Amino acid sequence: MDVNTQPLFFPEPFAVFQYYRNEYLEKSSSSEIVLIVDIGGGTFNSCIIKTTDDGYLSRGGGTSVPLGLQAEICGGATIDRDLLNIIIKKAEENGLNWKDDPKSRAEREGSPVLLKIEDAKIQLSDDIGSSAKLAEDQSHVEAHLFFEKGELHPEENIDVTLNGEDLKSVIRNLWRRKYGHIIIQTISEAKEKLKNLNFHSQKIDKVIVAGGSSKLPFMREEIKTVIPTMVDENEIFIAPYLGRSVAYGLAFEGLEQISRNTNLSTNKIVPCLLNELYIGFKKDRKSSVVVPKIRYGDKILKDGQLISEPFIIEDYVLEYEFEMPFEVNDKLFYYFSDRPFDSYDLIPLNAGNDVVSINSQNKIVKKWKLEININKNGIIKPAITFKEKGKGAKKEGIRKNLPEFQFQNFNLKEGKSFIGIDFGTTNSYVVQFIKTDDEYQDIKYPQFEISSDILNKVRKLESELIELKDSHELDEERLIKYSHNQMLKLVFHSNKIEGNPLTQGETERVLEKTSAAELSTREREAFNLQEAYDWMIANHGAWRTEPEGFLRNINKMILKGIFEENGNYRKKFVKISGVDFNPPISSSIPSFMEELSKELKNGCEDRSVIEFATSVHTKFVAIHPFVDGNGRTARLLVNSILLNHNLPPIIVNYADKQRYLFGLEGSNKGDLSGLLDFFIECFYESLEDYKNWLNAPEESGDKDREADPACGVEPVDPSDNPINLALKEIGADLESDPIELAMQPKIEKHENLMKVEYESWKNSFLFLKSELFSINEAFNSNERYRSAGFKMKVLEYDLLSFDKYLDLCSGKKVSRTWFMGFDVMSFDQKERILFFFVNTMRRLKDLKLNPVSLILARSDNGSYRILEAEPIRFREIGYSDGQLLFFQSDDEVEEGNVKLNLSNLIADVIKSYL
Q: Same structural domain for residues 391 and 501?
């Protein structure tokens, strides 16, 4: 990496040439070689360009413009410093002795010395005039300077006079030491490029002198002295001051040149920190933060700010001096932050490591030093140094290395830094921008629409909740107890959605451990999520009071010991697995999270709690602020909002992962309807489970965790059956109870028959799905369909579990029973059909019909309508004696060829809707 520790300055031929073209083009009718000299307040720039007949800059057949380009830090400010040396020498000749370095005193922040010298320089330049010759004596031209005690000397006033010969000697010296060499190097570079273009002229047609210091005397004569045979003095022109346009031009021209020729000397790579850093202190923990006065080099920093972005890092070790705002003897409480200390929701970067022991018996000097070491991975290593007064005090002071901490949103970029600076005699303009390789994305803060059907579901749910809250069943104490009871299920399913392979039984064994020691990464994920879930329950209101801190801490706990960037906003581009959506670039995360925080602080207001929770969950996932753990963090955010409103938490079941992802896919396109519909179903299921938990025996409410058949958990021991336990309590002997003995084999036989029936039923519907995939593959392989803009996509969900199958068979209400679906798309339209399981709607006496069948629904603005009057023949797919039955709208039944019946269904959809 080529680190540029000096500012870069680029001459801006376009802005300067604009003046030349307007004023002098009519004097020239052919292409010309133009030398542009830009003397700024702190810089001297030189470039050569080649014009064309119509007055525009030539690109030289692919060669970059300018043809020659050089820059140095030796402009008007250098002249001022050289005049300062003359003043110091004259004061010494008058018998003055210096007690400190007058140059350091003159260059301090706020010192008027150099400003007075600049005024004297301008006065001398105006009195000498631009037509004066070097051979003429200018000693009669004078400028008087007076420096009060303390400005240049700590105890003496200084009265001195500069004359025209002083200014002439400084200017001539600079031309011989610096300016002339820059012009010669520029011409040499241009000659090489002109040679390649077969341009053999050794003459410069025009010279334009620009910049705030261009009006210094002797400019034309000095240029003519440097290149006596190459330019006519009458063709050297002094351009007017061009102001801020030159500064912008400098920066943009630098970018333009590098984009066309990476070999230019101006192509420097610099590391740039896109963060801010502040420091503050407290007398004790109860006091308010006080910010010190800080000096960095010759700059005085305000409000405790150490770094302002963008900050070009010249060194990864930054050194500051500051004055402690109060006396320190025992302990020092210190705080680092990435925002000002008056911010509403500020969380210190060094939380937990905010005190250092001083233990000094002597009085401490108020002036301290601070050292900041910035590591590329975002680790900040601070150190402070202070001095004591009295006997035994160390001359070099006492150094204390403070515990390292990490930027929450560390953003170190290595890119091209383009700086345009124009120093004038009365105004100075600085323009800087940094171009990085981040992919640009025009992504706005997410906003959603919701279909009227789903809004009606939301209203219905809210009215039910009002009645439920009036019954006092939604009690906070019981809800928190219930939430802890749901720990295992939530941890298992949330991790399973993210690809964790642990079974529910394995997860439970991890959750029983008291320490994360010797756990594998996958086990640690379960252990961490349990701790984060526990913390969320205990702090379920913090999502509103301190949104960013709440979300960062959850993510930090989820990834603790797994990923070192835990709790920190990501610094790179990421892609969300399973979703066709790219989150915003890393540099926009802070502003998006600030917007989300405002929304969270405002709370639900007039919105439904479930709609609000779904919306902020989805916005958080879309922003994707962390490298990992975003989904788990978002789901805990939903449950914290529900708990804070005295509602039971929801669990997104792993079996419904695809439906969850499809809901997110829809929300990423601006429609929240599908995901909100899914979360409403999840909530109803949790609400029903909560009611059952409330009505369960008190002693078993906390101990018993309901096994989930989809989780691969071992079956419950029959001896733990509540009926058997009840019989044991009254002293009944199971082995001698005649009813039990008679019923046990009957029940076992019934269960075995149901399992056999379920397996046969399951295999038939799996075959149905495989045939749909076969049709999908053939459809998408058809070249004629593809060329006309048509394609097809199968949506796949998990098969109904055995428990849900039994519930549907017995007529119970079961939620989230999606099985599969398909999209048929043209170039401008998409139609979606969904299949989900229900207790069969057909009651046919002449058919031994299985109680569980598939019904068809059509997507309609984010929700799904069961087919009723639509121009599609099929309505339901049932199962009987090993075969599938296709029920039509007129109650006719099609049997036999599954692929043909599915093809007819797809054909109806295409004919009716595309």
A: no
